[in-house]
Amino acid sequence: MLAELRRSPFLDDLTPDDRRVVPLLLTLPIGVIAALLAALICGVAVVLAFAVGGGDDGAMALISRGETPVGLTQITFVVSMLAFVNGGMALAFVGVAAVLHHRRLASYFTAAPRFRWRLLLLGLGLFAVTIGPLLLASAALDPKAPGAPILAISPHLGGRLAYAAIAVALLLVAAAAEELVFRGWLVKVVGAWFSDPRGVLVLSGLLFSAIHFDPNLDAFLVRLAMGVGLAWMTLRLGGIEFAVGVHAANNILILLFIQPMSLKPDAPHAFPPETLVIAPLMLAGYVAMAEIVARWEPLRRWTRLAIP
Predict the structure, then answer these.
(1) Given phi > 0 = left and psi -120 to 50 = alpha, else beta, which region is 268?
(2) Which of 59, 69, 110, 140 is the most exposed place for a label (fewest CB within 10 A)?
(3) How many Cβ atoms from other residues are within 10 Å of residue 157's Cβ?
(4) Can you tell me the distance from the alpha carbon of 70 to that of 50, in angstroms, rounded to the nearest whole number?
(5) What mean pLDDT, rounded, does the chain reach?
(6) How far is it, in rounded angstroms, from Cα 211 to Cα 207?
(7) 163, 154 in Cβ contact below 8 A?
């Protein structure tokens, strides 16, 4: 399967410009400055939008104190900040990289002529019916699990449906922001310097996991497996669309059924040995999903997927 990754259309457009050191070094400071400005603008826009719409219901104070948001309005405010601030930062940072490396911004999304929405939807659905049940079963078997957040958000069906719709829409934006940076931009940067796809997979996965600054080794290994798996999808399918769907589906299921939104980082804890089984299985599941889409003709035809 590594042979198919070496022929990835996502890396076919790399040029000597992508291997120039000076633009790469300039991308980091200039891109970070642009990202911070975008974060400020998007954050102010979200605050103003909620102020005009009826206030943030105390969510700004919660964010400043690092407390857990409660209620539909507070959670919507916090997830909106997460989605649009991260989205603005990602577009600004990768936009700077595109200018410095003389390439189109769209090339960090996909190698296809246009963004493949069907591939994104397939990522959402395929994750939900394959790995999703395993996540839900593990939460159901955990005696310390807090219960499904969607059931606690409101006693009424309308409130629960609104929570689900908000989670799906905003977490898609948040996942797209992460994928644009860590699979779109980073995979191209690493791929410009490493011809072996194994180097691309491992290095992009390590950086993706490390940037979360989680003190727990089990979380690091799980995110490493997730990062490598999402990078595999990007290389194999020629773009980040499917990875965005899978990443979003993982976050959506967690926020709806497993764990409520929290602003506090995880406290350090002992290493659970079962992580050594869970992480490889997660990676295998991600790789299997990408290979199913790449190899099964009905899915290739429906998503208009063209793989050499």
Answers:
(1) beta
(2) 140
(3) 8
(4) 16
(5) 90
(6) 6
(7) yes
Q: How many CB atoms lie within 10 A of CB 252?
A: 22
Mean pLDDT value of segment 64-78: 77
H or E element in which residue 187 lies: helix 186-193
- pLDDT tens column, 78-131: 899 999 999 999 999 999 999 999 999 999 999 999 999 999 999 999 999 998
Q: Say how far apart CA 286 and CA 121 lie, in whole Å.
A: 16
User: pLDDT digit string (tens) for 216-258?
Assistant: 999 999 999 999 999 999 999 999 999 999 999 999 999 999 8
Which tokens belong to 56?
């943030």
Q: Are 84 and 46 in contact (CB under 8 A)?
A: yes
Instruction: Report CA-CA distances (Å) from 69 to 60, 77, 156, 234.
Output: 10, 9, 19, 34
Sole residue written with tokens 């939008």: 49
Residues 6+ apart with CB under 8 A from 74: 56, 57, 58, 59, 62
Instruction: Give SS3 for 239.
Output: strand
Delimit the domains of the chain by residue range. Answer: 19-303
Tokens of 179: 């994928």
Distance CA 154, CA 143 (A): 23
Q: How many Å apart are CA 94 and CA 215, to the nearest integer?
A: 28
Would you state the structure tokens that stand for residue 18, as one six-digit string? 């992508």
CB 290 within 8 A of CB 96: no
Task: Write the Ramachandran bin of 68: left for phi over 0, alpha for psi from -120 to 50, otherwise beta.
Answer: beta
- The H or E element that residue 183 is part of is none
